[in-house]
Each structure stands twice: as C-alpha cells, then as structure tokens.
Design goal:
Radius of gyration: 24 Å
Distance between the termini: 51 Å
Largest sheet: 7 strands, mixed
Strand order of the largest sheet: 2-1-7-9-8-5-6
Number of strands: 16
Structural class: alpha/beta
Order of helices and strands: EHEEEHHEEHEEEHHEHHEHHEEEEE
Length: 339
C-alpha cells in the first residue's frame, strides 16, 4: 500500500458545485493512473462517515440526490466503483491506529489517514495522501504528537512522480528497491530487461552513483522523449514554437548536436559514441541490445564520472511505446583503443 485517501480535503462549503465535482473527478483520474501502474491505496472507515457539509456525511453527500451535490450519473458511477471495493486500512490486522488529529501545513485538521501516513513515513515506509485537489499539493509538513514528517499529497502527475522519487530516499532504496520503484518514479522511461543487473558493475557500486543516477533518470523521464523527438529546433520546451510566414510550425532535423545541447540545458553531458566505436565490431556489439525483433545500437551515453561509470540509452521507438530506453548500466564498455 502506497497511498491513503485523505479525509479533510473533502470538506465543502456548499458553494460552486461544478468546481467541487471537478475536484472529485481529478481525484478519480488520479486513482485510475495509480490502478494502471499497479499502485494500491486504502482509506480509513472514517472517510465516508465524516461530516463534510454541515451535518451531512460524505456518504450522504455523494449518493443522496436530495442534497446539494447531486453528482452527475457518470461521476456517481465512478465514485461507486471506487468505494464498493475500497480497502480500509484501520480494519486490517496489524496496522496501527494513529491519532485522528494532525497539523498539515500549519492547519489543524481531523485526518486519520494523514496521521497514518505520518506514522508509516516515520517508520521508513513511504506513504502518500491522495487528496482532493485545491487543499494541499506536494510535500507538506505534517505534525502528529509533536513529531514532524514530510508527507506527500498527491493530486496530479507532477506530485505523483515526486512522491515516488522521494520514496527512493525515504526507504533508502538499494539496487532491488530502485528496480521496484523506478517504473513508478520514472513512468515515461522504458527499462530494458536485464538493465538492472548492470548496477553491480558500477565502479564503487550503486552507492557511488546513486544521487546522480536518480537525477539523470528524473530529467530523462521528464524531458527525454521531447529531446529526441521534437523537430522544431528549440533548445527548451519553454521556447516558442517557430513558425513560417503562413503561421505553420517550422521543422528542423534532430541532429546529434541539437540533442546534446538540449541535454546540456538540464546540466547533463549526454553524448553519442564516436564513429570508430560503431565501426569496431566488438565495441558495437557491446552496445547493442534487442527489443523484440529490433536491434538497438545504444550509442547515447551519460558519464557519471570522466573515466568510469556509464548509462547507455536509446531514443524512443515504436517497440518502447514512444518512451526513451534505458539500456545499459556499466563501469566501462570496450573502446577501440582498449586492445
């Protein structure tokens, strides 16, 4: 279990019904993403019983058509699907019942699940709150019983990924932990089968490159596909798209130099191999990997240090679902001059 449904963010003043419904739909969308990524969540039995609009409980607000919310049928069906199979963490044997009160970002609230996430994070188990957008977002200071912990409130894709990237630190993830968390922390990367075995071949081990590797994967996940596929010639996604006299987008070749300059904008020195490496059979084969029936020459590499430790990648292909491919981790692959 990685997520708990936070209670206090459901409070509603009865105004702007459409905006409140939109917040609910945003949470439902986030739950759909978590489900697609095989990420599990739970709630407290207090969630549906809490009073969120005067004397009205959340369960009444969601399903009583006489109350002001009166959800549209399609939204009501989605909500029912979530709550009909919802797991309650406070009904599971062995799970501690924390305080129901917490201070979140300086605000005193009744939130059993925020307190539960606080207790789990204090014990080294990264846990985030799934909340209705508009109350809290991202890492927030949560105080329970005088103890402070940073708890992530996940409301969108950015805060979703940030939580799992922070989980690598909270859980002090080793090589096995990184392999387990990477698809969630970096969901827009395609990790080739066997790539994780290369972590043990780093000079100095995984610990020596850990922080730099996490940063590299984060930039690659956030921007790598754009770097390799955007044909506008821009150096950054923030730059305006160039257009011709008719107002149509201008396209330019995606050269090696352009890719390198783009990565440099995020302070990453990512470069292709020299032509003599590809011309050498032994060196080329060391950089080749199979994805389905497609042979990939993974010439693009990031240097963790000047003379050792490399990550080899490949641009998006149809077989990777349009994702940048992380292919090889290694201390050093053979070069023509090594023999």
């Amino acid at each position: 279990m990685r997520f708990v449904l936070e209670e206090a963010s459901w409070a509603w003043d009865g105004e702007d019904r459409e905006a409140y419904i939109e917040r609910i739909e945003q949470l439902l969308d986030r739950l759909d993403v978590a489900r697609e990524r095989d990420e599990h969540w739970a709630a407290s039995s207090e969630l549906l019983q809490q009073r969120v609009l005067g004397a009205h409980k959340l369960m009444d607000l969601l399903w009583d058509p006489e109350l002001p919310l009166n959800l549209p049928p399609e939204v009501s069906q989605r909500v029912a699907a979530v709550f009909s199979s919802l797991r309650c963490w406070d009904e599971d044997d062995g799970l501690p019942w924390p305080s129901i009160e917490a201070t979140v970002a300086g605000r005193d609230v009744v939130s059993p699940s925020a307190a539960f996430a606080h207790a789990r994070v204090a014990g080294g188990a990264a846990t985030a709150c799934l909340a209705l957008p508009g109350t809290w977002s991202g890492p927030c200071e949560v105080v329970v019983g005088g103890r402070k912990e940073i708890i992530h409130f996940v409301v969108d894709e950015r805060s979703h990924r940030a939580f799992f990237r922070d989980a690598l630190i909270v859980e002090r993830a080793d090589e096995v932990g990184l392999e387990a968390l990477a698809p969630h922390a970096f969901p827009d990367l395609f990790f080739l089968e066997g790539v994780w075995d290369g972590l043990r071949h780093f000079n100095g081990g995984y610990a020596r490159v850990r922080d730099d590797l996490h940063r590299f994967l984060a930039v690659l996940d956030d921007h790598g596909a754009w770097v390799f596929t955007d044909a506008t010639g821009r150096l950054s996604p923030q730059e305006p798209v160039p257009v011709d006299r008719q107002g149509k987008p201008v396209t330019r070749p995606i050269t090696h130099e352009l890719v390198e300059r783009r990565f440099r904008g995020w302070s990453l020195e990512v470069a292709p191999e020299n032509s003599d490496v590809q011309a050498d059979g032994t060196c080329r084969r060391a950089r080749e990997r199979m994805l389905g029936r497609r042979k990939l020459y993974c010439e693009w590499h990031y240097k963790f240090e000047r003379h050792t430790n490399r990550a080899h990648i490949h641009g998006p292909v149809s077989e990777s679902g349009g994702k940048v491919i992380v292919a090889i981790f290694r201390d050093h692959l053979p070069l023509p001059g090594d023999r």
